[in-house]
Specification:
With 206 residues, this protein is an all-alpha fold. The chain has eight helices and no strands. Keywords: Cell membrane, Membrane, Transmembrane, Transmembrane helix.
Length: 206
């Protein structure tokens, strides 16, 4: 039961972050729902495709898509003031990133995948929804620019696999891995931590 709740929590968190982006971009109600729901279930659909699960679970379990749509509608009607939208977007995106990275890796590992494959599946699950969201609103995907985005997903996925390898269950792996990923992501945003970027001379052009 706790494991299922964690999956739905990740979907809801990502859906809210996606819907907030849609509100900030001043999309209509359909646009907000499409961006929010796609962000919410997109990562899980990519995970299932990588693991050979057809059709993806979000097409079979009505709860997944329902949570994503309802979360998006709530944001559309009750979103905070414009000056606070960016703050909430980052927080919910971090929660979705953490829960999806750990959960995706746990699902892959328990299905018999290798350690490396499980970690990569977890990372793709975590960043997939965000990439879909950014593409839909014509933005450079955050995984390429934001503070330790992919690194946080790697930490969450790697920790989840380590917990499972040491005998823990999927719930514990998701909780510990997700918590560490969320903590690193929010800390990197607060402190402005980035991976190294190329140094450009003053006269160079892109």
């Amino acid at each position: 039961m706790v494991y299922e709740v964690l999956q739905l929590a990740g979907i809801l968190a990502f859906a809210i972050s996606g819907a907030l982006v849609g509100v900030r971009r001043r999309l209509d109600i359909l646009g907000v729902v499409v961006v929010g729901a796609s962000t919410g279930v997109g990562g899980g659909i990519l995970r299932d495709m990588l693991l050979g699960v057809h059709p993806p679970l979000s097409f079979l379990h009505w709860q997944n898509l329902t949570v994503a749509i309802v979360g998006s509608l709530v944001v559309f009607y009750l979103h905070p003031s414009v000056t606070r939208i960016r703050h909430f977007e980052v927080v919910f995106d971090a929660f979705g990133l953490g829960l999806f990275s750990a959960n995706g890796a746990a699902v892959a590992y328990l299905s018999g995948q290798s350690t490396l494959t499980s970690i990569l599946v977890g990372v793709i699950t975590a960043i997939g929804g965000g990439v879909i969201r950014d593409v839909l609103v014509n933005t450079v995907p955050g995984v390429l620019t934001r503070e330790l985005y992919a690194v946080s997903a790697l930490l969450g996925a790697g920790t989840a696999v380590a917990v499972l390898a040491l005998g823990g269950d999927a719930t514990l792996a998701s909780l510990i891995g997700g918590a560490l990923a969320i903590t690193l992501r929010l800390t990197s945003v607060a402190r402005g931590w980035h991976l190294p970027r190329p140094k450009m001379s003053s006269g160079s052009t892109a």
